[in-house]
Amino acid sequence: MLEPAWEYTGVAMMRQIGALVMLAASLHLLGGCATLGFYGQAVGGQLRVLSARQSVQHLLEAPETPASLRDDLLRTRQILLFAAQALGLPAKGRYDSFVATGRDAVVWNVFAAPELSLEPRRWCYPFAGCVPYRGYFRKESAQRHARRMRDRGWVVHVGGAAAYSTLGWFDDPLLDTFIDWSEGQLANLLMHELAHGKVWVRGDAAFNESLASFVGDAGARAWLADKPQALAAYAQDRLAEAGFERWLAQLRAALAAVYAADQPEAERRQGKAAVYAALRRCFLTHSQAFGSSRYARVVEQAVNNAYLASRSTYDRHVPAFARLFDDSGREWAEFWGAVDELAALPADARGEALHRLDARHSTELGQQQIADAGDDEDANEIQCHPFPGHGAGGDFPGTEHDGVGSGGHG
Question: For residues 93 and 109, what is the distance between their CA atoms, to the nearest angstrom?
C-alpha cells in the first residue's frame, strides 16, 4: 500500500488533531465513564481515518496505483466537479484524499426503539445536536452497546455505513467502502454527504437526512442524464427500493395502529407479532411487487421497530423536498434558497411546513398514478392487510426479531 502523502502529516494534520484534542477535553466536562468511553472511541476512530489518508493526486500519479482504483478516483473527481457546478454543492477541497479501510463499513450505527413504539431513542451530541443513532468505528463496540440496550428492554438494530460526514470539521476522504460502487450509487452517496455540508439543522435528523437523500437521488439522475445504460440500471435499483419502501410503509401503518390501540400491553404484543408475521408472509408471497427477493434476508432478520425508525429518519420528508424542488422550477439555486428558509424556521413551524409539502406531493403523485393507470390493475398495488388478533400469522412464529440486525443505511 502507498504511504500517505506528506501534506497530511504536516500543519493541516496537526491542526485537525488539535481540534480533536480540544473536543475530547470539552467532552470530558460531560462526565460519566460510558460517555467518556464513547467519545474516546470516536476521537480514536477519526484519528485513525485521518492518519491513513493518501492524496488522490499522489495516487493518480503513482505508477503502482492499480488501474481500477485510478479509474474510480478519476470518476469521483468528475462527479464532484458536476456536483459543484450543477447543484451548487460545496465540493471544493472535499474528498481529495483516499483511505483503504479493508472493511465493508467505516462506522456502525446503533438504532433503538421501544417495544411498542416506532419512536426512535435519541442521543445528543455537542455539535450535531440530538440524533436517533449512536455511531461506532468498530462493529464489536456497536454490537456491545446494542446488547446493553436490548438488556434494558429496547428493540435494537445495528447498521453499517459506508460513509459519514464530519460537517466540514475535517477533510473527509474517499473510502474503499464505496469507491467501486456503480456510477449511479456512487454519485448518490457523494452528493448525499456533500448536502450535509451545505445545510445542517442541529438536532433535526429527519430534515437533514431526508434533504440529503433527495439531493443524492436527484443529483445522481442528473449526472447520469447523458449515460442511458447507467441511468437505466440506477433507475431499476431505485424502483426496487421504492417497492421495498411500499412494504415498509404498510408495515409501519399496521404497527402504528396496534401500538396506538387502547388495549393492555399483552394484547398489543400479540397484535405486533401477528402484524410482523402476516406482512413477512406477504413479502415472501409477493416479493417482486415489493422490491424483489434481494430484500428477503433483511425482512427475515433485520426488520424490527428500530430498523423502521432508522429508515424513517432517512426517508420521511423526501417527498417534501421533491415538491419543493418542483416549486423552485427545478432550479438548484432557487431550491437551496427555499431550503435555507425552511432551515431558519423554529422546529415546530419547520415540521408543519414539511408535512404540508409531503401532503401536496402525495396528493399530486396519487392523482398522476390514477391517470397513468386508467382502468388497468397495477401489480404494484398488491395489498396484504394484517388483522391483528385473528391468527393472521398462520404457521409463522410470532417472534419479534428484536435482536441485533445487520446492514442498514448510514
Answer: 27
pLDDT of residue 296: 92
Cell output for 242 = 421504492
Cβ atoms within 10 A of the Cβ of 215, count?
A: 29
Binning pLDDT at 50, 70 and 90, where does residue 60 land? Answer: very high
User: What's the rounded mean pLDDT across residues 286-295?
Assistant: 88
Q: What is the pLDDT of residue 364?
A: 64
Return the pLDDT at 404.
33
Q: How far apart are CA 46 and CA 55, in angstroms?
A: 17
Q: Which of 184, 204, 203, 180 is nearest to 192 (CA)?
A: 184
Residues contacting residue 271 through CB under 8 Å, at least 6 positions apart: 258, 261, 263, 388, 389
